[in-house]
Amino acid sequence: MATNTTNEEMKVILGELDTLFESFYEWLAGQYDCASGGFYYARSSYHMDNFIPDIESSAQALNIIERSGLLPELPERVRQGLIAFFQNKQDPASGYFYDADDNMRKDEVMVGRALGYSTNSLRKLGGQPLYTLPHQQQEPPEFMQSPETYVEWLKSVDLRNSWRGCDLMCAPNHHVAALNVQDQRSYVDAAAAYFASIQDPETGLWGEGNLYIRISGTFKLNMFYKRFGLSVPHLDRILRTIQLCLRTEEAIDMCWIRNPLDLLEAFREELKVPAEDFAEIMHISIANMRKLLRSDGGFSRELKHSPTAPNVAQVKEGEFYPYMPAAVPIGLGLVEGDMNAGTQAIWIRQIGYELGGIDHLPLDYARTFRNAIEARLA
Fold it and tell me: What is the pTM of this model?
């Protein structure tokens, strides 16, 4: 991707990124809860009444550990504690994984994420779910009766906020994946035709909202294309829109920093980003990340503070956010690091190195994690 000169420039840029993680792994270890075996979302989560670590934060912590090359040396007590943590979250009746807050069960997106987070985490840790998983025992929703009814349901999804709407449209992906090969193809083809018909031919994006929200929606919808082996149309237009967005819009959320890079990573085999363009993208992204770095060593997901719940998004005045669920609080919303931002930050680093053509190696700072986590176990 890069010339020798640009490689040297990228090393300098990525070296600047690495300095942001100087105290990150001490922060990460400080989120571990010995009693439950999970990881808290933020420091303030410790001070919430009758609250224990949640599924998403614990899975995100495990993602950080894995991407940092720390999984093989994870203390056995921590590994076994995490296995038990996720197993204890599974509901024997439905097979789904739930946190204690009943409002979580009302948010289809959160329920779907918890299922994926929990099963993937157990696999990484060498554990197994205790009960049959839901897609193996439950009938699909009524709108999955045929490709036509599936597309009619997709058309009913409100896309005035692309981020939330595209996320919801991907919620039935696991139902489509459970179909036999012939039926699956008819559903996938029907959905792909609909998505193509509503893609903005100028930007390559879907839905409405500011550019970061629409890029984030496109990031969500890419999960459909990736899962079923399809190419996203108009990649060159999406790249052009990403560059315009980074140059002109304010990134007020770590998701907004990560999602454009995640798209470029997903498109890496089909879309060759010029080296000088990628260097500019990383330079802007690092400057945006620095604004979210906190004194405790972690990163906040939002510019002003850490959000109080994982299923709410920061919305600018005048913007529309459909399907707003009841909040599921996991922090106090202080100016502090949170696990959602942390897992995105470490993923941004990996993408930067891989797309920048530089060997991706664990941070030297990561070595502090084992000592810090063992100190908590003592």
Answer: 0.90
